[in-house]
């Protein structure tokens, strides 16, 4: 972890980096088109920043990453207390990956591509079922296997490598490891290029949109998404469910990018495009681990509404959507969105209820999510001093999330 501590609120982190850069409140506020009074209230915790595009502007003005302001994870532990993110980092940054000429890359026993692919699918299933610790524990070995498969220079090997690095990028983005996620997404795209498979390439591009969204690079996410969508468009026109799912998911990821840069018209258009693909598909499915279908489109309508600032709409309509037919990971993300909306409206009882339900489904996804940590920190600070049942729940949850 870098810079400001994870125990700080977003406002306190802004103050930390502003002072570190030698900027006054007046200067920084002017750089993002806000008043000095607005920034002062943000730094003192008297006002919340509800939109990621504003946080992104502040991060750029202070020359830090979006993750620096949102808060990086401290640990990602499974039930045994393991922390395998450093092992994932070591696998991605292994110096032997730099050159096959400098290092002897000859494997004594070539890997079985099919077996590695089955292990990759199992890790993807763990991720979608909310078993974050198991996924992270499996990634170092899978990444090393991907490197060996790349040495065989076969299309099946490149395809499996792309899927492994896609999983790594998606997982690392989820827990706030933005720089590592970008490395993994680059590797996914490189392997996908060599696989000569348009589905693999579109899927890897989806991983890149995850990494770019986490880094606050919304225009870049839109550019990658549109390029990948165009690449796959002809195949989707034939009704191929794999292509429809990937194109639809790319549209959904782009709709999030558009919403986070406050482009309501583009976000609405992309959601409509995804809705058409979902209607063609005809049901909720999970081709290429997309969880794409009509329900996921509705979940993204809620998610983009939250990013666009339609807080009351999310609080009113979000709870009425039933995500139970989708993978646990998608269900949990939706409950977090609903909880954030309730928190912004100071409806803390409903927010805590949604977060606790999400935690029951996937404890690690919730406890190590930087956005959840900031939400529960805000709820904790609003809670009354006297200890009641709800206050006790908030205190215990905040402790489990390392929010205080």
Description:
The chain is mostly helical. It has three domains: 1-72, lambda repressor-like DNA-binding domains (434 Repressor (Amino-terminal Domain), Orthogonal Bundle), CATH 1.10.260; 75-215, no CATH class; 327-404. The protein has 21 helices and no strands. It has helices at residues 10-20, 25-31, 36-44, 52-62, 66-70, 85-92, 113-128, 132-152, 155-174, 178-195, 198-214, 218-237, 241-260, 264-281, 294-307, 311-317, 328-344, 348-361, 363-367, 370-382, 389-400. α15 packs antiparallel against α16 and α17 runs antiparallel to α18 (348-361). The longest helix has 21 residues, at 132-152. The protein is globular, with a radius of gyration of 21 Å.
Short description:
The protein is mainly alpha-helical and 404 residues long.
Q: Helices and strands, in N-to-C order?
A: HHHHHHHHHHHHHHHHHHHHH
Please state the CA-atom Rg, rounded to the nearest Å: 21 Å
Shape descriptor reads globular
How far is it from the N-terminal to the C-terminal residue, by CA?
A: 17 Å
Number of helices: 21
SSE-based structural type: mainly alpha
Portion in helices: over 70%
How many domains in all? 3
Biggest beta sheet attributes: none
- Average pLDDT across residues? 88
Count of β-strands: 0
The residue ranges in which pLDDT falls below 50 over 5 or more consecutive positions are 1-5
